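HOLO CASE FILE
Compound: 0RA
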Amino acid sequence: MAMDEEQIKQQEEESKKKADGTKSETAYDADNLTVLKGLEAVRMRPAMYIGSTGTRGLHHLFVEVVDNSIDEAMAGYCTQIDFTIHTDKSLSVRDDGRGIPVDINTETGLSGVEVAMTILHAGGKFGGGGYKVSGGLHGVGVSAVNALAEWCYVEVCRGGRCYRQRYERGVPVTPLEVVGKAKTTGTYTRWMADPEIFGEIDYHHDIFINRIRELAYLNKGIKITFNDENTGESQEFKYDTGIAAFVDHLNRNRTGLHKVVYFQRSREDTTVEIAMQYNDSFQDNILSFANNINTIEGGSHLSGFKTAMTRVINAYARKSGALKEKDSNLSGDDVREGLTAVISVKLLHPQFEGQTKTKLGNSDIEGIVNSVVGEGLSEFLEENPAVGKRIVDKSLTAARAREAARRASELVKRQNALENSSLPGKLADCTERDPTKCELYLVEGESAGGSAKQGRDRHYQAVLPLKGKILNVEKTRIDKVLENAEIRSLISALGTGISTPGLSTVEDDEESETGNGNGKDNGPRYDLSRLRYHRVIIMTDADVDGDHIRTLLLTFFFRYMRPLVEEGHVYIAQPPLFRIKVGKDQQYYAKDEPERDEVLKTLGNRKDVIVSRFKGLGEMNADQLHETTMDMTKRTMLQVTLEDAIEADDAFSMLMGEKVEPRRLFIEQNAKQFTGVDWHA
Ligand code: 0RA
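Model generated. Tokens follow.
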């Protein structure tokens, strides 16, 4: 593979020519032009290539770079990847793979390195003939990163030499030069995101670490390190048990019913890896990946998995006598209740479909996964009858509860049909009929509800007081959730209905399911178009109980009205915590201690200042509540967005789930910082 001296010289000459801008009538220049055009296109419309020029796009550059190293790891040539945030805000990824080829590619007349760095979608073009299995969903590759970098350089060590080439905004500014001797092989890419494209460069550790952790889980045995030169922080991620460790991690705040089941099998060029564990909750949490990409829209691998689960558990339940001949089959939802699973397939030519290109389309994968899970799970159940019994028992209980839920849901539907326009008695509705202009305040307690009703703008603002603590939906099965009076008045006030995980029937369950496993697309559909208020504002006391009610409400929305959160309809009101009276007729409000101190500072040394702390919304009269919190022209609110469903699910289950210890620790450590749900003004 090492190239000869002749090649090196030739290639250096070519690169120099290019760096000099030397004009000649060669094909090389024509290619050069197309290259420039390609990268120019990326700079003209960055969002088309990397999704956005905001936080997401900025961090996505890392994904494009690291994916190449992961590809090299999947091909079996790379065992360690190091990611570093440097003090100058540049980032780098180093791997110990074979190194990007440096020899001249005959088609373009450029070195493999330069092809990779400057030609869009270069993929497997650079010598060596592509990878067997490759990730990289967007596939624009590292050239897009290069185009959007103020500067970028690549160092490649292979064949006993190290080479380096530098670029500025995608354009080579040096040839590919030999910079030294090499004992090892590998690729090092370092880049400075271009402020012209991204504005201020502000990195979030969490985003990098989450992806790194996920990649480490999905590629067992590979060591990936995270390093920040600014803080000296260094973390290492390496999981010898791969996705089995992933499932352990996902269930860390829940109580597992057995050890994680893991198997890996291949069919021709496709590898299927499955890890799963039941826990004592009622939700399922099934994550699916294809070539390391989180297929949040599901697809054929998920369908194959679900079909096999239902088939195998029913067969086992019948064989063991838990299901009698006259009994009907367990439904897919029954067998998935409380199941946490990670499905990872690696295949040759993944086809990504769906709105966000995160749905696996390859139809042959369904049968492959179905057959692999059929074999793997049947064998496991045969060898572990005690676990088998626990799983079947849990599914049977789920089936009974679901029957009850179906009846409860029917009841809700019938009542809705009957009542139709009749809204909950406690709701003080607004007069405006255009939902886009309407707001609903969800207020803790009757007395605050009273103040809010008086203090609102009744044209646009409706108020629904909620009594005490609403149900903890994380700990409660759907049938009980739907029986709860507070929940029911909330549902009917909003008008959308709910999406009830797992109320589908056995019949619609067996064929080709394409959900993401969270039940979002099962059962009655959530109809966001019927939403009666486009801003749903949670207004609770600024104390522990208030926090709790807010979390309960958010959990409910997250579980049963996820689109409401996803589409940005949920807000948190910001009632003040302090009132600062000055003299007889001057007063200020402050939402927290820093704001209070700010106000006090501006007041200097005045003696007639009285600071009081509101213990709850109920202490405010209607005027105060209006002025400080509800006045549509002056108030500030926090909008709740769902950045990352996986994390939010984690945070909710940790805060609301059964295990007390992690919850206490979490609250102590992160009192304010609520991962996964982004609060921003
Ligand atoms: C194509 C062929 C070969 C290596 C690579 C690509 C490669 C690319 C990247 C990008 C980042 N790290 C990488 N490591 C390897 C090898 C061809 C051969 O040696 O046969």
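CASE NOTES: Confidence is low (pLDDT under 50) at residues 15-28, 124-138, 504-523, 667-681. The domain at 243-397 is CATH 3.30.230.10 (Ribosomal Protein S5; domain 2).
CLOSED: yes
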